[in-house]
Design a protein that fits this description.
- This protein is α/β, with parallel strands linked by helices and about 500 residues long.
- It has 14 helices and 21 strands.
- It has helices at about 15-25, 45, 80-90, 180-190, 215-225, 230-235, 235-250, 255-270, 275-280, 300, 360-365, 400-415, 430-440, 470-475, and strands at about 10, 30-35, 100, 105-110, 115-120, 125-130, 130-135, 155-160, 175, 195-200, 205-210, 295, 310, 315-320, 320-325, 330, 335-340, 350-355, 385, 425, 485.
- It is globular, with a radius of gyration of 23 Å.
- The N and C termini lie close together (about 5 Å).
- The mean pLDDT is about 95.
């Protein structure tokens, strides 16, 4: 017989996905606890606080469906605004009291005799739960470049996700290494204050132009009075047409949709950059969307300012007062920002996760991280992920992705909470079939068209959902129960 007592859920991480899980569990009257390693919530939007930080998804689309927000200051919100929004959601839905702050989980071990998970926190305390919702953030562990003699630099240097608060930036010589979204946003923000700004670009990025504008107080009042106006933006047809176009282009590089994306990016570069030499410096040598597209509205304007220099040469070494290039050029710097991305394949690491038969997650994720439809793991019972490995990635709202995944997960949780079963996990055969189909399809996407990016695993296979957005929506509508091992305690 199955254990019919109230099942307890551990939520690891109080970022976007952790709050989503907590709100839904609270609504359902479930017993849960949230463990957060830091002293506040927000995840990515807490850790990243660099100048110019904005979300490339329209603010009203980057909100929970159950918590519309009328107070966004602009069409694209800043990172600090998003963090405040999450804090408000946590307070409004009574989640904040359930969070154990400064409680990093260092180990999750499954006990087969009792069908439960033992969690150990950084203080050495143990906690027992029936269900675990893992943190699965790809922009969590900063990646620093292997730049020779970086420690010789005598000015301030740091990763973009470890910004030095209170640092004086005015009239400084500033170098930025990296030109993904973070590097582009930081460079854009600092051109107006830096004495000289050098943007080191090993591989320039294609930029998709987007609109940005402030909301007036009258418009915000209209949102407060009529939430339908918020939904009109959240479900705007043009916005969703763009998402579906983008997704069709990704999965079929020879499609008209992909050609349209490339035309827009190329035409934007051609029309925006007047100097031919600078234009060629900023022209990537790979196809648009092979790397994650940068969405921006004024980098090309800022990069043409007289105090900005785009450096595409190779770095020889870092010196006490700047960077020496291999061609002999020396850039004198006071501040060096490493906008060099994250270890996107780490997810829950370095937390030790041990499932059935002593299987470690590190072993299971060799050679690549993966999960069944990005949410469940064979031989790791009652463990669920939101925005886990092989999920959809791109320039769209991961809140929407997570909410659809939660609908899938919740149906599996119902089996556990109803007493029908003590453990639920995907069958190894079902997972292996999914992974084979996914890899075959992923190798045909634009991500495999000949560039290096954080989308690729160590073997060069994109770690992404390789089918259409609607295919993902359909897959999340209902789990295929025959793909799961559902076991009771007998």
């Amino acid at each position: 017989m199955s254990d019919k007592r109230q099942k307890r859920t551990a939520i690891i991480g109080a970022g976007m996905a952790g709050l989503l899980a907590a709100v839904n569990l609270k609504k359902a009257g479930r017993d849960f606890t949230v463990f957060e390693k830091a002293d506040s919530i927000g995840g990515t939007w807490r850790d990243n606080r660099y100048p110019g930080l904005t979300c490339d998804v329209p603010a009203h689309a980057y909100t929970y469906s159950f918590a519309p927000y009328a107070e966004w200051s602009a069409y694209h919100a800043t990172g600090q605004e998003i963090k405040r929004y999450f804090e408000k959601v946590a307070d409004d839905f009574g989640i904040t009291p359930t969070i154990h702050f400064n409680s990093e989980i260092t180990a999750c071990h499954f006990h087969e005799a009792s069908n439960d998970w033992q969690l150990t926190d950084a203080h050495g305390e143990s906690h027992v739960f029936d269900i675990v919702r893992l943190s699965s953030v790809v922009v969590r562990l900063p990646s620093t470049p292997e730049t020779p003699r970086l420690n010789d630099f005598q000015g301030s240097y740091f990763h973009s996700a470890q910004w030095e608060d209170g640092l004086a930036l005015e009239d400084k010589n500033i170098g930025i290494i990296g030109c993904g979204s973070s590097g582009i946003q930081i460079a854009t923000a600092l051109t107006s204050v830096a004495k000289q700004l050098v943007h080191f670009q090993r591989s320039p990025q294609w930029i998709m132009p987007v609109q940005q504008f402030d909301y007036t107080e009258e418009e915000k009042q209209a949102f407060r009075d009529n939430p339908q106006l918020i939904d009109d933006i959240r479900y705007d047809k043009q916005y969703w047409d763009n998402i579906y176009r983008f997704n069709k282009g990704i999965i079929n590089p020879d499609s008209p949709e992909m050609q349209m994306i490339e035309d827009i990016c190329r035409d934007y570069l051609e029309a925006s950059i007047q100097d031919s030499e600078l234009r060629e410096k900023l022209r990537p040598d790979y196809r648009a969307a092979c790397k994650r597209l940068v969405y921006n509205w004024h980098y090309y304007d800022c990069v043409q300012k007289p105090n900005v220099f785009v450096e595409t040469g190779s770095i020889d070494r870092v010196m006490g007062s700047g960077i020496q290039m291999k061609d002999g050029t020396f850039h004198e710097l006071d501040i060096l920002v490493l906008a060099t991305g994250f270890h996107a394949d780490k997810f829950i690491k370095p937390t030790s996760v041990i499932g059935r038969d002593g299987l470690s997650l590190d072993t299971f994720w060799t050679p690549r991280p993966s999960a069944h439809y990005a949410v469940t793991l064979p031989r790791f019972p009652n463990m669920f992920m939101l925005n886990g490995p092989t999920g959809p990635v791109g320039n769209f709202s991961l809140i929407d992705i997570a909410e659809r995944q939660w609908g899938y997960i919740d149906q599996l949780l119902d089996i556990i909470h109803s007493g029908e079963a003590d453990t639920v996990e995907p069958k190894i055969s079902a997972f292996e079939d999914y992974e084979k189909r996914r890899i075959d399809a992923a190798q045909k996407t634009i991500f495999s068209s000949g560039c290096t990016s954080w989308y690729l695993d160590k073997t060069g296979v994109p770690m992404t959902w390789p089918w259409g957005y609607q295919d993902f929506v359909d897959a999340m509508h209902q789990p295929v129960i025959s793909e799961y091992d559902i076991k009771d305690a007998s």
